[in-house]
Design brief:
The chain has 363 residues and is of the alpha/beta class. It folds into 2 domains: 150 residues, no CATH class; 182 residues, no CATH class. Helix content is 50%, strand content 8%. Strands 1-5-3-4-2 form a 5-stranded mixed β-sheet. Strand 3 and strand 4 form a beta hairpin. Helix 10 packs across helix 12 and helix 13 packs across helix 16. It is elongated and about 80 Å long. The relative contact order is 0.09.
């Protein structure tokens, strides 16, 4: 008999969902899920707009997990996290209904006045006008969610459902898809640990951590050490490297130790990232990391090159700079395709040459 994924379809009203939510019956923070806060307020409000008009939405996928000692069931939210969080935010008055609720061909003349009056209001504000808008309040609480229960015990297979759903639905970033696929791998666990290193405090603030851009960037740095070369950061290259090293414990441990040495060298360069915020752009962070990695490889002390590196970036970021020689090479390599292998090597070689270090890393 063919093996099929075990699942069951049912429905749940928003009232029933929120009762369960208040009882702590849902686990939103499963490892393969993306972080909270991905949806903007407008996108959340638009979902509420759709609910109050009784438009359909895609199914919510839940995985029942039964505690064999207590008999209590908790549900992992496999897919639909952002939608459920938007619903809770509306109930708890953290977001309003859309301001354009009435500006829709769906609203006819007979309902235009009522729709206009509740547009832009929070749920509490609508409820205060209960005598005027009982239909909308009832509609919200009785709105029916389509639920798919997944009974698979193996978490990696449940994670693959999340992956499949989101490849064809609400777009995930490449790193969010990797997180779904490799969430239990030694590689990703190591990278998530490295992201939390105190050295990166405030330096990655330009990246959207809710979309895992910080994890992707640290992955790029970690692969420099793992592969012993500067690399392109195209999705295919990163996907291939995640597949190659996912559970290569020996290589990962070796690279982690070397990576920590690189961070120590970076700290000894004593660059002022607070005063010069542009140094926190990933273009330059990747370069200075690669520079520190080169010092580790060549056994060159950070102290011997620290002043030259500071001088280079002070001149580079100066409004009066003429951009000649290595400064021009670096600037030209920072103007386009900044994540390509070629441009990254050019920037690194320009900085190395300025500091009097041979450019012998042809890899």
């Amino acid at each position: 008999m063919a093996k099929l994924f075990e699942r069951k379809s049912t429905s749940l009203t928003l009232s029933e969902f929120y009762d369960n939510y208040q009882l702590g019956k849902y686990r939103f923070e499963v490892s393969y899920q993306r972080k909270s806060g991905v949806w903007s307020e407008d996108k959340k409000s638009f979902l509420i707009d759709s609910i109050l008009k009784n438009y359909p939405m895609p199914a919510i996928f839940l995985r029942p997990c039964v505690n064999t000692d207590t008999g209590k069931t908790v549900y992992d939210v496999v897919d639909g996290k952002q939608r459920l969080e938007a619903i809770v935010d509306f109930i708890e008055n953290k977001i309003p209904l859309t301001s354009y609720f009435a500006e829709d061909d769906f609203i006819d003349e007979a309902n235009l006045k009522t729709a206009s009056e509740i547009a832009g209001l929070t749920f509490e504000e609508i409820k205060r006008l209960n005598s005027d808008f009982p239909d909308y309040i009832k509609q919200f609480w009785t709105y029916s969610l389509n639920i798919e229960y997944l009974y698979e015990q193996k978490e990696e297979l449940v994670a693959s459902v999340f992956d499949r759903l989101n490849r064809n639905g609400e777009p995930l970033t490449s790193q969010e898809l990797r997180n779904a696929k490799y969430n239990d791998s030694i590689l990703l666990k190591t990278i998530k640990k490295l992201v939390k290193d105190a050295f990166w405090n405030d330096k990655l603030s330009r990246l959207k951590s809710v979309r895992m851009e910080d994890i992707e960037f640290i992955s790029e740095l970690f692969f420099v050490v793992l592969e012993n070369k500067v690399l392109d950061s195209s999705p295919k290259v990163l996907d291939d490297l995640y597949g190659k090293y996912q559970d290569d414990e020996e290589s990962i441990k070796r690279a982690e130790n070397e990576y920590k040495k690189v961070i120590e060298v970076l700290q000894k360069l004593n660059l002022d990232f607070n005063t010069n915020k542009r140094l926190c752009w990933t273009t330059h962070l990747y370069t200075v990391f690669s520079f520190a990695w080169t010092l580790v490889r060549k056994n060159i002390s950070a102290e011997s090159k620290a002043n030259l590196v500071k001088e280079f970036y002070a001149e580079y970021f100066s409004k009066s700079s003429n951009y000649e020689g290595m400064l021009k090479e670096y600037k030209d390599a920072s103007s386009s395709r900044t994540r390509s292998e070629t441009q990254r090597k050019k920037r690194l070689f320009a900085l190395l040459s300025y500091c009097g270090i041979d450019n012998d890393n042809g890899k």
